[in-house]
């Protein structure tokens, strides 16, 4: 696992406020998850479903999906990003030479000479070694500078505000599992609440209560109605995003590489890192098949 120093700022009231604001999307999503738990477990299962067998099936299936969904989400948020190893940092004397160089060509030659012993194949659009002026080091293949994290991130896919973290080398598996289990979580809610959602509309239109809805009070109806709509909306959004990232995994691409092909000495090539679909999958999920779909490290 690559390592490096984390250069995220942590000083001053303004910086604290900026960092706090970044957590707003995460807090919003967490609040939605907590509300969905209340709406499903209390309003639907405890107060609405009459059959104890049905209650048991719903509660067991729901809590299994809920637990693994939250586990994946936690891992995606709190897994530290992998930064650039120190061997890619320019030595102080070389950095001094580059900063005092009289031309861009001279600067490029200094970086080229330093990078000769480094395991890199990616180049810039003009064929030069990729160098980060902000972090002052050579960029490894597939590494990019994140303006939010203020550090270069290994195999960066994108910075996701919903997890307040870069989706990258260390947590990409967890991000994929988070999307997949979030989709299953929403689909399970939609499928199991659908009969009660339909009955609610029948009751609302016909103005009469049937036995199936006999336990639902006014606020309970709202929670079940809104739960169905929210779960269906998130499921629709998640399936497209999840499918897209499955496609990227099978082709060994990141989102950044899908929009701009990585450049090698022979030119741009979107398939430059592809090892074949099975090997591409293993690169993300590891070679321990029993742990592929569990949010734990498998590399």
UniProtKB/TrEMBL annotation:
<feature type="transmembrane region" description="Helical">
    <location>
        <begin position="57"/>
        <end position="74"/>
    </location>
</feature>
<feature type="transmembrane region" description="Helical">
    <location>
        <begin position="222"/>
        <end position="244"/>
    </location>
</feature>
<keyword id="KW-0808">Transferase</keyword>
<feature type="transmembrane region" description="Helical">
    <location>
        <begin position="174"/>
        <end position="201"/>
    </location>
</feature>
<feature type="domain" description="Palmitoyltransferase DHHC">
    <location>
        <begin position="130"/>
        <end position="259"/>
    </location>
</feature>
<dbReference type="GO" id="GO:0016020">
    <property type="term" value="C:membrane"/>
</dbReference>
<dbReference type="Pfam" id="PF01529">
    <property type="entry name" value="DHHC"/>
</dbReference>
<comment type="similarity">
    <text>Belongs to the DHHC palmitoyltransferase family.</text>
</comment>
<protein>
    <recommendedName>
        <fullName>Palmitoyltransferase</fullName>
        <ecNumber>2.3.1.225</ecNumber>
    </recommendedName>
</protein>
<dbReference type="InterPro" id="IPR001594">
    <property type="entry name" value="Palmitoyltrfase_DHHC"/>
</dbReference>
<dbReference type="InterPro" id="IPR039859">
    <property type="entry name" value="PFA4/ZDH16/20/ERF2-like"/>
</dbReference>
<keyword id="KW-1133">Transmembrane helix</keyword>
<dbReference type="GO" id="GO:0019706">
    <property type="term" value="F:protein-cysteine S-palmitoyltransferase activity"/>
</dbReference>
<keyword id="KW-0472">Membrane</keyword>
<keyword id="KW-0812">Transmembrane</keyword>
<feature type="transmembrane region" description="Helical">
    <location>
        <begin position="26"/>
        <end position="50"/>
    </location>
</feature>
<keyword id="KW-0012">Acyltransferase</keyword>
């Amino acid at each position: 696992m690559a390592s490096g120093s984390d250069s995220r700022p942590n000083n001053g009231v303004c910086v604290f406020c900026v960092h706090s604001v970044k957590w707003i999307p995460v807090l919003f999503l967490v609040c939605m998850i907590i509300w969905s738990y209340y709406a499903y477990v209390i309003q639907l299962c405890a107060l609405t479903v009459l059959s104890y067998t049905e209650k048991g099936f719903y509660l067991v299936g729901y809590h299994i999906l809920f637990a693994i969904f939250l586990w994946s989400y936690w891992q995606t948020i709190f897994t530290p990003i992998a930064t650039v190893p120190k061997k890619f940092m320019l030595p102080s004397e070389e950095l001094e030479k580059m900063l005092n160089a009289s031309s861009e060509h001279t600067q490029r030659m200094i970086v080229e000479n330093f990078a000769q012993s480094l395991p890199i194949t990616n180049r810039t659009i003009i064929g030069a070694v990729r160098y980060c002026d902000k972090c002052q080091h050579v960029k490894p293949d597939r590494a990019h500078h994140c303006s939010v994290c203020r550090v270069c991130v290994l195999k960066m896919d994108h910075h996701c505000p919903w997890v307040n973290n870069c989706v990258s080398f260390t947590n990409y598996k967890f991000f994929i599992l988070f999307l997949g289990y979030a989709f299953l979580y929403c689909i399970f809610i939609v499928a199991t609440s659908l009969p009660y959602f339909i009955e609610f509309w029948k009751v609302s239109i016909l103005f009469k209560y049937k036995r199936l809805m006999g336990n639902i009070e006014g606020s309970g109806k709202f929670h079940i109605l809104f739960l169905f709509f929210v779960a269906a909306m998130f499921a629709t959004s998640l399936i497209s995003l999840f499918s897209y990232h499955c496609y990227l995994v099978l082709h060994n691409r990141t989102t950044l590489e899908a929009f701009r092909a990585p450049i090698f000495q022979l030119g741009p090539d979107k398939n430059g890192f592809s090892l074949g679909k099975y090997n591409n999958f293993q690169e993300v999920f590891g070679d321990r098949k029993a742990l592929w779909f569990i949010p734990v490290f498998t590399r």
